[in-house]
Design brief:
Elements lengths: L23 E15 L3 E17 L5 E12 L6 E4 L10 E8 L2 E10 L12 E6 L5 E18 L2 E17 L1 H7 L3 E13 L6 H6 L12
Antiparallel strand pairs: 1-2, 1-10, 2-3, 3-5, 4-7, 5-6, 6-8, 7-8, 8-9, 9-10
């Protein structure tokens, strides 16, 4: 169970430089992959897709200040275990603020992220609630998450695209039933993948972009 519930990395960071130019609006997609060793099955791949809406300031000192909210998170099923957020929880998660700096022709950012035992998704339970469906036991687990994320990219299609990697520490602080309380353990997870952002119209919202069907941008991660 523990290898399936750790594929979760959310981006939250302190604010950076003051914005000096008009804000743009970007849609973003990030895909992160990892691998877990599972008894009898060997190495099992994990995958998490996150979709964002961000306001972007190109500042006078040559940096890019990006503040984003999560619109949707999809955690792929792995070896019969499905983990998901509660419906409507993703947009309630803490926003992220990323300060990008340019070195040569590439852009870089690195930041701490996560949430503690506060009710981050607003469902009345501590931390963030994840729904678990598995052959042996199903139900809800309540988790905290702290991570360090590194992004490296280049300008593309008016936005940014590139590589991502992160290390996260996830702690289970509660669960439904003895089975989940026994199986869902604290763990450290290392993942890598890709991200991409493109400009969208100024009035775009998570709801309008999700309702359109096809998300405006897709990142690709090779393994």
């Amino acid at each position: 169970m523990r290898w399936a519930v750790a594929a979760l990395v959310m981006m939250v960071a302190p604010t950076g430089a003051n914005a000096e130019e008009a804000a743009e609006v970007w849609a973003g997609h990030q895909v992160m992959k990892g691998a877990r060793s599972v008894p009898l099955l060997g190495s099992v791949e994990t995958r998490t897709d996150s979709y964002f809406l961000a306001t972007v300031q190109r500042t006078g000192d040559g940096t890019i200040l990006l503040e984003q909210r999560t619109c949707r998170v999809e955690i792929a099923e792995a070896a019969g275990v499905q983990v998901s957020f509660l419906p409507g929880a993703a947009p309630k998660l803490p926003p992220a603020t990323l300060l990008w700096r340019r070195k040569g022709g590439a852009w870089f950012t690195a930041f701490e992220s996560g949430w503690g035992e506060e009710d981050a998704d607003g469902d009345g339970n501590p931390g963030v609630t994840l729904q678990v469906k598995a052959p042996l036991c199903s139900g809800r687990i309540f988790v905290t998450s702290k991570s360090r994320t590194w992004l490296r990219g280049r300008e593309r299609d008016g936005g940014l695209a590139g590589e991502a990697r992160a290390v996260s520490d996830q702690k289970t602080i509660g669960a439904d039933g003895m089975c989940l309380r026994t199986m869902a353990k604290d763990e450290r997870d290392a993942v890598q993948g890709a991200f991409a952002y493109v400009p969208v119209e100024a009035g775009a919202t998570c709801e309008s972009l999700l309702a359109a069907g096809a998300w405006p941008v897709r990142a690709t991660a090779e393994r």
